[in-house]
Amino acid sequence: xxxxxxxxYALGDSSVDSEHQYLFELANLIIDSPTNxxxxxxxxxxxxxxxxxxQTEEKLMQAQGYPTNKQHIASHNRMLASLxxxxxxxxxxxxxxxxxxxxxxxxxxxxxxxDWQFKNYLANRIPA
Length: 128
Ligand SMILES: [Fe+2]
Ligand SMILES: [Fe+2]
Hints:
The chain has one domain (13-124): Four Helix Bundle (Hemerythrin (Met), subunit A), CATH 1.20.120.50. It has helices spanning 14-31, 36-63, 69-91, 97-124. By secondary structure, the protein is mainly α. It is built from four helices and no strands. It starts with 13 loop residues before the first helix and ends with a helix. The model has no long low-confidence stretch (mean pLDDT 88). The structure holds fe (ii) ion (2 copies). Residues 57, 72, 76, 110, 114-115 line the site of one fe (ii) ion (FE2). The site of one fe (ii) ion (FE2) has 5 residues, from helix 2 and helix 4.
């Protein structure tokens, strides 16, 4: 299975959208990892990217005065924690592709729910 970015996922902010796109590329790299070492390396890249991306989004939400960002940040933190526990499974050689798919499904759901709520907030806000 390959993860595919869709235009439908776009929020309209170029940094956020290109970071979301890169997330899909990394997920495909993980799926195609030829060795366990490559898998560990690619998951580390995903973790680093996730952390940077969440910071981009959280700064943007703060700068735009987004009122319910605490819940959104909590969701980011849950995904980071889930990646850390998955990294531990990989070290033990017990992480499989189904879990990558499960993680990506969780993240895509985050994009189309939490991230989109922010998108709707930006679209509906009265210009200052
Ligand atoms: Fe996001
Ligand atoms: Fe988010």
